[in-house]
Amino acid sequence: MIRLLPFVALSALASGSVLQQPLQNVVADSQALINSKPLISSEALQDLIKTENLRERSKELYKIAELSLDEYNHPTRVIGSPGHLGTVDYIYSTIAKLGDYYEISNQTFPAVMGNIFEYRLVLGNHVPQSAMAMSLTPPTKDKEPVFGPLVLVANEGCDESDYPKNTTGSIALIKRGVCAFGDKSAAAGKAGAIAAVVYNNSPGSLSGTLGEPSKDHVATFGISNQDAQPYIRELQAGKIINSSAYIDSVVSKVGTTNIIAQTKGGDQENCVMLGGHSDSVAEGPGINDDGTGTMTLLEVATQLVNFKVNNCVRFAWWAGEEEGLLGSDYYVSQLSEEENLKIRLFMDYDMLASPNYAYQVYDARDDVNPVGSEELRDLYTEWYEKHGENYTYIAFDGRSDYDAFIKNGIPGGGIATGAEGVKTKEEVDMFGGTAGQWYDPCYHQLCDDISNLNFEAWLLVAHSVATYAESFKGFPKRTSIMVTANEKGSLYHGPELVM
Ligand SMILES: *[C@@H]1O[C@H](CO)[C@@H](O)[C@H](O)[C@H]1NC(C)=O
Ligand SMILES: *[C@@H]1O[C@H](CO)[C@@H](O)[C@H](O)[C@H]1NC(C)=O
Ligand SMILES: *[C@@H]1O[C@H](CO)[C@@H](O)[C@H](O)[C@H]1NC(C)=O
Ligand SMILES: *[C@@H]1O[C@H](CO)[C@@H](O)[C@H](O)[C@H]1NC(C)=O
Ligand SMILES: [Zn+2]
Q1: Which CATH number fits domain 37-101+264-470: 3.40.50.2000, 3.30.572.10, 3.30.1490.20, 3.40.630.10?
Q2: Closest ligand to Cα 20
Q3: In this structure, is the dihedral angle defined by the CA atoms of residues 202, 13, 368 and 482, taken in order, positive or negative?
Q4: What is the value of pTM for the model shown?
């Protein structure tokens, strides 16, 4: 689950190569073997989903996150890290071991990843409290503190001519607005600044991203307008403000990979698709977010091989979700109209075992989302009702990988068990747990480890897969790839707050 705005995202590159999926030409005898299996049924598939297997997988995933220890000093599966590469290998090899049942494909796309380890800004004798290093900022020279006078840049610092001659060797103070933070940083770098500080033009602190890396970027901070004003007055009065800046960070371009596995059996023109994300944030191992989705999909895929399916089932493990839904965006952007129409619906599984959980169902509705989204929503709620469980609706607002699908005409939905939202007293009556605390108190933190799991919601995933693998009876047909009324912009996509 991607963090709520204001979101400081890393950036994705627009173009890239892809190893796309060849899906037909099943050899006749493996088809015969698949056909000899019993037809999928929800109860039979659920019976095979064992909590113990999921627990074992979560331990393995934690070990894989520890592959990043050398570089990050803690376990993580963020894209570009050994922990993420290990996760992708683990997913791929787990499916490959299942033999002929699935067609597996890798889809590699370019992304930019950055990591900020430490930063400090001192202006005169003061540390502005609101100072934050911008996402995807390069480090200061040699990752050491640099020293120079603060120089006020004219206008918004988007033009070369805004920078006074004495910007060389200085820390440039630039107003927010008109052009992107990355443009300001590059202009300051070209003018010879050793660092840049962008101050806000609206209330509050300023966190942003430089976006696509450039050789001209210099180490860049954001500060609030309130913090900046006293310095601006002093500079305008001709005062010299000796300052220092320090950022230790890395920015690099990486190739990262979605894994797609599709059943060779079943109607290849009518697929139920489901996905979870294989990556975590840099801060921790991401065992609930979204190790739980990753593991559930793996376990469901593993048990599904015992059955014959009528409709094809396509599993996806997305990369770069935490950087702005990069993998799922890229995947959907590469679908031809014909391929798009084969996907009858997409089910998102992100954060399934939050310790202070609520059973959350995305409130997907046919009037604002592609038709079929509501039928999927009702499948989930009917299941909870049948099992005597409570559930809540949560906003279907684009905070996870379903977003590219519903924006491109594909019905979508999903369930979750809660991220950094605060559990209410009413929800404690409904689900137990602790009021006033986050659903996942370890959301996006180091403690999102194997002790951070409440194994509850897995069976519903099996139910959803089995239901549609057996039949789309009554489920609306796909007719168009048109974007629907749901035009909420691109809140959580790619680099946010670039200006
Ligand atoms: C796909 O990715 C997996 C996992 O990283 C790797 O083992 C495999 O060789 C890749 N296959 C192709 C065709 O690139
Ligand atoms: C830089 O030059 C401007 C005039 O262009 C001047 O007002 C300012 O004081 C100078 N700053 C430093 C640090 O010399
Ligand atoms: C700023 O630093 C310069 C060079 O180190 C020094 O000569 C000057 O006295 C300092 N000015 C102030 C106001 O601290
Ligand atoms: C569902 O919520 C109600 C309160 O709204 C509560 O009385 C009931 O016990 C809950 N059911 C379960 C299975 O927790
Ligand atoms: Zn997340």
Answers
A1: 3.40.630.10
A2: 1
A3: positive
A4: 0.81
